[in-house]
Amino acid sequence: MLTPFLDDRSIDWPTLDALIEMWLDAGVAGLFAVAQSAEMFQLTEDERVALAAHVVRAVGGRIPIVAAGAFGASATRQVEMVGRLHGTGVAAVVLLTNQFADDGESDDVWRTRVGALLDATAGIDLGLYECPAPYKRVLPPETLAWAAASNRFVFHKDTCLVGAQIAAKVAAVRGTRLRFFNAEMASLLDSLGAGGDGFSGIAANYFPEVIVWLCRHALDRPEQARSVHDALIVGEYVVDFKYPAAAKRFLRLSGRAAISDACRVHSVGFSEHDDRGLRALDRLSATLIARTEAVGA
């Protein structure tokens, strides 16, 4: 999820409600609040809790909500934040994989520290996110299997970008509570074919209806799905452009939401040239929506 801001960079709650309804109307299976797209590192701890609680209230149980929050300077603070976010009613509190061991420290160190958090947060469902910042810690299949075997993890957002590793990780958690969501558009069909559960990536802030269709029909309409997928892969290069400000601008230019470009993570400008690319992406989105509607929802 994006976090909309007013010009003074405070959270724009009414626009957030409009975005939530947009995603619900698109048929998404869940929402990931307080993630990197939400500019979580630029939010205060109280804002992260307030954001998660607001989304839970606005959704009203229609779909599950997950939210990240176990990051900080100490294990004690991580445990406290897991408890605070759990208290908002989210379905799972998502742990950033890069917050439990430094870059270069072993997976054994990682498992020991995550195990300590599991012991201190008994009864709370959790998730995992291979967040690219401040560094990207990709979990190998055996470590993801260890997490799934704890019976505490129900969500994983994968950013490894390697087809063979994605397939191995999906196989490693098969039959457990953990659901595997790919963040990379280019490998989405492969991950769905391997048994993955869906998509959790930034493109869903642009054309969620198309991605919902693709996840539903990747296996039963393979020819149409491949054609739609190819177009989304090409579109991903525009999706990455000046993100997340460009995503907010796209939603406004396309008439989907009255959202400001304002971000806390950066301040960027947009030229006429930039807007042409975003408007072209909107036309591509409309074409894909029409194509998927023509073959059936």
Q: Helix and strand string, N-terminal first?
A: HEHEHEHEHEHEHEHHHH
Q: How much strand content do the residues show?
A: 5-15%
Spans of at least 5 consecutive residues whose pLDDT stays below 50 are none
Helix coverage percent of residues? 40-55%
Biggest sheet architecture: 7 strands, parallel
Fold topology:
Blueprint: H1 13-26, E1 31-33, H2 45-59, E2 65-68, H3 75-86, E3 92-96, H4 107-120, E4 126-129, H5 141-149, E5 153-158, H6 163-173, E6 179-182, H7 188-193, E7 198-199, H8 208-217, H9 222-239, H10 245-253, H11 272-295
Parallel strand pairs: 1-2, 2-3, 3-4, 4-5, 5-6, 6-7
Helix pairs in contact: 1-2, 5-6, 9-11, 10-11
Task: Tag the structure with descriptive keywords.
single chain, 297 residues, alpha/beta, TIM Barrel, seven-stranded parallel sheet, 11 helices, 48% helix
Give a written overview of the molecule.
It contains 11 helices and 7 strands. α3 links the parallel β2 (65-68) and β3 (92-96). The chain starts with 12 loop residues before the first helix and ends with a helix. By secondary structure, the chain is an alpha/beta fold. The chain has one domain (13-295): Aldolase class I (TIM Barrel). It has helices at residues 13-26, 45-59, 75-86, 107-120, 141-149, 163-173, 188-193, 208-217, 222-239, 245-253, 272-295, and strands spanning 31-33, 65-68, 92-96, 126-129, 153-158, 179-182, 198-199. The chain has a 7-stranded parallel beta sheet.
